[in-house]
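User: My instructor asked us to take a sequence, write out its structure as tokens, and then describe one feature of it. I'm not sure where to start. Here is the sequence I was given:
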Amino acid sequence: MIRLEFSIEIKRSPEHVFALVGDPEKDVQWQSAVVAVRKVTPGPIRTGSRYQHTLSILGKHTDIDVEFTERHAHSGYVLKSLGAPFDFEMRVQLQPTARGTLLEAVIEGRPSGVARIAAVLLSRHRRAEIKRDLRTLKKRMESGEL
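Assistant: Let's start with the prediction itself. The structure tokens for your sequence are:
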């Protein structure tokens, strides 16, 4: 199993942070690998909502379908991939702090077979990319740009 953990404090309320990070259609505004997002299920965002993300990873475009398996307004959510090419689950928790919001994210992947080797290499690349994306999110939210 591959596990990536991240945390960052953002000087904005949990409601403001959740409004951005809890809406996959806004991922293109702050996640560098996200090229496009399409909502697959109708209606408001809720547990069971599905999205298709088009990602650019190492110069290749890849579509990944995800579903909210949990969603708690202003406090976090769980997204799970639906099938190939990546099997992962991402847990995001938001906690109020004296200065704003602590965002904690844990991504767990379960590669198997030959994909295990590629997944280890890819996880190193994605770890650095996600750290940059979170710094960008913090900077843009705290400046009022987002």
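For the description part of your assignment, you could build on this observation: The chain has one domain: 2-142. Try explaining in your own words what that tells you about the chain.
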